[in-house]
Amino acid sequence: MDDGLFDTPGAPSVPSAPIGGGTLAGNTHASAPLAVRMRPRTLDELVGQTHLLAVGSPLRRLIEGDQPMSLLLWGPPGTGKTTIASIVSQQTNRVFVEVSAVAAGIKEVRASIDAARARLVSSGQETVLFVDEVHRFTKAQQDALLPGVENRWVTLVAATTENPFFSVISPLLSRSLLLTLEPLTDDDIRGVVASALKDERGYAGQVEVEDDALDHLVRLAGGDARRSLTYLEAAAGAAVARGLDRVDLATTETAVDRAAVRYDRQGDQHYDVTSAFIKSIRGSDADAALHYLARMIEAGEDPRFIARRLVILASEDIGLADPTALPTAVAAAQAVQLIGMPEARLNLAQATIALAVAPKSNAVTLGIDAASADVRAGKIGPVPPHLRDAHYAGSKKLGHGSEYIYSHDEPYGIAEQQYPPDVVLDAHYYRPTGLGAEAGIRERWERVRRIIRGR
């Protein structure tokens, strides 16, 4: 269950409205997990997702205007999907019913909708039906939700960590408002922890956290509010057990069984480790590359940042020496978006190893750099007349395209004619290496270039 988007520091206490059902009911008692006790009760207590909280936004209209509307919440764990569903229920006085896509079948889905319909008819009270991990539902199970959504017997709030355009059926997607949730920032997570330390539902000022321990908690959270509070609860419990009222780094490391990785995502360590990661792949050392990848992942680095670096490297340092490098890196980047962490670490690791062991060539980089240098130097001659657009009236009178030779009509599909402007006629930008697949490309390119240039 997703428990993100927690209180801002100093947020006012708001009496909790009763929840009409589901696993969230009765979870405000002292023995409930800290992440559950600190769940926001109003939109004003939410942290992060400012793009969803603006005045007049669909989410505010649904909650504050009490407008019937079904939501599809897409985002990584700990960003507030379950929290939003709870607030929809509490602030609109709807009954809250939760159905887990992991355990429920079509029978349970239909029973929940039938009960909501009967409740609406008998008392006029509406129902929020929360479906967690809706991407785990089969097509038939998702189809079972449609009558309730179509007839507004329920206000559906469905949550998913996977791309709904791949995992949710089109009829359900078209009948729901899609809201995308982003990972919380480091400052958001600091606010979550600070609030839990001060709030009466948390530690009410009885426990403090030292700065380096707080930094460690923030790194481990990785933008997941629930995770930050789970780790805080473990660390604070360990400190109290030792008779301490301050949580230090050593206690935190012991409590969560994770050593502090010295890695500042905004400082030198970020750039140093990233640089070592890229240079290790470029140098074909797969072991070193995996080490630096693990350091970034364990420190909570944004996996999308890592994926972007791999995509760049695939063209910058490998290019056509292994034509599969770029598709491999792009696939890893898409997997990060589709799957999310922690599973996507496997996709990043696979791409890292594939790029590290691939033959290397920087011919693509050198080629575009050389071409760009000529353009910046002013070598921008007119396009040869036979290559100019000849599709508009009057172009023939100007001689545009009149001497163009159609390549497919020539032997080998290659025509001898001038393509570059005169000013760069003898330029030689792309110079393939003899490494990997580029060796074959070099041989072909040299033959093709001689034919084109008439040599």
Descriptive notes:
This protein has helices spanning 34-37, 58-64, 81-92, 106-123, 139-143, 146-150, 164-167, 170-174, 186-198, 211-221, 225-241, 249-256, 268-282, 286-298, 303-318, 325-339, 344-357, 363-376, 438-453; strands at residues 71-74, 95-100, 127-132, 155-160, 177-180, 208-209, 246-247. The protein has four domains: 34-180, P-loop containing nucleotide triphosphate hydrolases (Rossmann fold, 3-Layer(aba) Sandwich); 186-256, Orthogonal Bundle (Helicase, Ruva Protein, domain 3), CATH 1.10.8.60; 268-357, Up-down Bundle (Zinc Finger, Delta Prime, domain 3); 363-453, post-AAA+ oligomerization domain-like (Orthogonal Bundle), CATH 1.10.3710.10. Residues 1-26 have low confidence and may be disordered. It is of the alpha/beta class and 455 residues long. It is 47% helix and 7% strand.
